[in-house]
Design brief:
There is one protein chain. This protein is mainly α. Strand 1 (104-105) and strand 2 form a beta hairpin. The protein has 15 helices and two strands. Helix 1 (4-25) runs antiparallel to helix 2 (40-50), helix 1 crosses helix 4 (77-94) and helix 10 crosses helix 11. The longest helix has 30 residues, at 188-217. It has a two-stranded antiparallel ribbon. The protein is globular. The chain has one domain (4-310): Farnesyl Diphosphate Synthase, CATH 1.10.600. It has helices spanning 4-25, 40-50, 57-68, 77-94, 111-115, 117-141, 146-160, 165-175, 178-184, 188-217, 222-249, 252-255, 269-273, 275-292, 301-310; strands at residues 104-105, 108-109.
């Protein structure tokens, strides 16, 4: 029997999949009018990665956060899709030879393997910029004030930009090959601080932005936003630690990727702490995330289940 979380993820995921397909095909001319006449190779490349599956975690978080704050999830579908576009752009660029140089993503050849590096870069650029158009249109449809609309854009930009995900990715590149050297030189403390910075920014920042974006659209209170930000930071870090562990011990067929952390000498939690201590750290963060949801009562049930699922998943 399916769990409540599985049903919730499936129902929201179906809405997100349908919306993403409409947007990327240009079937909704009010949302992204320029996609329909886009060069075919670019449109195909964008659609290839955007519709390649995945957990759709970030867009579901946008919807769940809005629902926690009293706004139906369907009302924030555009922004939910926007966060998935940003996530997909980051994956396309992360897989490039100059970055992680991965051949597989979600069990399929990575974008640059199919369309070439130049088109893959442009596809990522296209998805990133289209995301802000979608979010702005969502704010307009909900008749948010100018200040709230600017806040929505700021939240998404900060989470995805140099102060968030992009900054974490840059630090991740800089740290390649340093894990062993730092430990050998007795600098494990510095390595651990760097690792926390990388994952707090590379993964948790966009997850937190997804939650706060849903809250902004729902006109949430300051305390509600603070609680969701704290939940996002904890659950985002737990998610990345679990990902690090799976990269080392998970079933590569289930994961749909080859696992490049060891090959690239990445700075990861299992590398510095070991598998079991990493799992315990993820579980502690999951418990912290659950504590942050107490003010929302039953409305936060999906977010509670999600915090528990993240540390127990096998893919």
């Amino acid at each position: 029997m399916k769990t409540p979380l599985a049903r919730y993820m499936r129902n929201r995921g179906t809405l997100i999949e349908r919306s993403l397909l409409r947007y990327v095909r240009g079937a909704d001319p009010t949302a992204i009018p320029f996609l329909a006449p886009a060069p075919k190779i670019l449109a195909r490349s964008m659609q290839y990665s955007l519709m390649a599956g995945g957990k759709r975690l970030r867009p579901v978080l946008v919807m769940a956060a809005a629902e926690c704050c009293g706004l139906p999830g369907r009302k924030v579908l555009q922004t939910a899709c926007a966060l998935e576009m940003i996530h997909t752009y980051s994956l396309i660029h992360d897989d490039l030879p100059a970055m992680d140089d991965d051949d597989l993503r979600r069990g399929k050849p990575t974008n640059h393997k199919v369309f070439g590096e130049a088109v893959a870069i442009l596809a990522g650029d296209g998805l990133l910029t289209a995301a802000f158009e979608l979010a702005a249109d969502n704010a307009a449809r909900l008749r948010l004030s100018g200040a709230d609309t600017a806040d929505l854009v700021r939240v998404i930009a900060a989470g995805s930009g140099w102060r968030g995900m992009v900054g974490g990715q840059a630090a991740d590149l800089e740290a390649e090959g340093l894990a062993g050297k730092r430990l050998d030189n007795g600098s494990s403390g510095k390595a651990r601080r760097l690792l926390d910075y990388i994952h707090t920014h590379k993964t948790a920042a966009l997850i937190t932005a997804s939650l706060e974006a849903g809250a902004v659209l729902a006109r949430a209170s300051r305390k509600q936003r603070e609680a969701l930000r704290a939940y996002g930071r904890a659950v985002g870090l737990a998610f990345q630690i679990a990902d690090d562990v799976l990269d080392r011990v998970g079933d590569k067929k289930k994961l749909g990727k080859s696992g490049s952390d060891i090959a690239n000498d990445k700075l990861t939690y299992p590398r510095l702490y070991g598998i079991e201590p990493s799992r315990r750290r993820a579980q502690a963060l999951s418990a912290e995330a659950l504590r942050r949801l107490k003010p929302f009562g039953k409305a936060a049930a999906p977010l509670r289940e999600l915090a528990e699922y993240i540390v127990a998943r096998d893919r």
